[in-house]
Amino acid sequence: MDFMSLGKDLAFVRKKQNLSLEDIQNEIKIPLSTLKSIEDGSIFTDSGETKTYIRSFVRSYAKVLGIPDSEIVQALNEMEDGTYTGSLLGESKKPEVTGKPDEKKTNAVVSKTDDNEPQEEPKPSPTPPRQSPEAKSPTDVHSVNWADMGKKFSSVRQHSNLWVIISFFVVLIIALLAIVFYWDSITSVFDSNEVEEPQVEAVQPSAPQGEAQIPSAADTSALDQSIDSNTQPQIRQNNTPIILGDTLALTVYAAFNKLEPVRVTSDYNWKTNPFWMEQGDAFSFEFRDSLLIDGQYSRMLLLFNGHIIENPRQNYFDQTFDAILITRSILDQPEYLEPAPAVFPLEIGPPDSTEFVIRF
């Protein structure tokens, strides 16, 4: 599968619009390294990013270029199926060019072919605007040596595989040395387990007449088992409230319409990421103490432990961050720590699917 095809086409459209990667980065706040990996195709093979992140980054990139979301989604699906053949540059789906018009065309020389008609003098063209180095000399996609670039990525993968093999053998050697060094201790443990102690049958002396009979160990164990069997059914484990751990997960549910997009910031790295969600989808986001959510608040529901957080826009909106701020102290309340209800409390029903976004 040629993972560079979609990235090459996006780079070609960007350069046709006289836009640089810095211009794209200023619009969507995605690192330049990520934008470069989209164009050279390495984000699909070597980045280690999840499918959700890759699709979000590429859709954000394409949105700046004016490419309709339906077309970029179709192109991504074709990439994943291995059927992408450059549909973004096809005549029927060619995106509108939103860059600056070519000023040379407006200053073209007007001449008459008739000898009797006077010819107009060419108008002096104004000084062209300064462009970034990438915009001044757009590279023809057909002139790039893609085979050479493929060799470079292959060499990187080979080095990575070599390091994995070396690390495996180092760990194996350390494990063997540890077994040899502690062999006596290991064998002594097994030997001690194999020694059988002689069984001595204890004779219970009969109690004098008029004194209470002391129950034997067998009788007490039987009594304990009967007590456990009588009390065990009364314990309802599924009704025990949860205890908040070091990591929490809050679910954003596109309950009433699709989110285009919702922006989420976790305190793992305080990096804001956009997520496009269709109606009925739900994403769960991990955080430690604070999570920011910014988007179409009337279209979403926030869920924790299966419970709906009531009126988050009115109750938890933070003017400083211009977003809803959910903290650990908000969720550490009895109504959210109780077990999730067996039936979803709203008529709209639970999410169609839930995707977990781990430490993005």
Question: Can you lay out the helices and strands and say which pair or pack?
Answer:
Layout: H1 4-16, H2 21-28, H3 32-40, H4 51-64, H5 69-81, H6 103-106, H7 133-136, H8 146-181, H9 183-194, H10 217-231, E1 248-253, E2 259-266, E3 272-277, E4 281-287, E5 290-294, E6 301-304, E7 307-308, H11 312-316, E8 317-318, E9 323-327, H12 328-331, H13 334-337, E10 353-357
Parallel strand pairs: 4-10
Antiparallel strand pairs: 1-4, 1-6, 2-3, 2-5, 5-9, 6-7, 8-9
Helix pairs in contact: 1-3, 4-5
Question: Can you describe what's shown?
Answer:
The protein is of the alpha+beta class and 360 residues long. Among the domains are: 4-93, lambda repressor-like DNA-binding domains (434 Repressor (Amino-terminal Domain), Orthogonal Bundle); 248-357, no CATH class. 39% of the residues lie in helices and 14% in strands. It has 13 helices and ten strands. The protein has helices at 4-16, 21-28, 32-40, 51-64, 69-81, 103-106, 133-136, 146-181, 183-194, 217-231, 312-316, 328-331, 334-337, and strands at 248-253, 259-266, 272-277, 281-287, 290-294, 301-304, 307-308, 317-318, 323-327, 353-357. The strands form two sheets. Strands 7-6-1-4-10 form a five-stranded mixed β-sheet, with no helix packed on it. Strands 3-2-5-9-8 form a five-stranded antiparallel β-sheet. Strand 8 and strand 9 form a beta hairpin. The protein is flat and about 75 Å long. The chain starts with a helix and ends with a strand. Mean pLDDT is 75; it is low at 91-144 and 195-237.
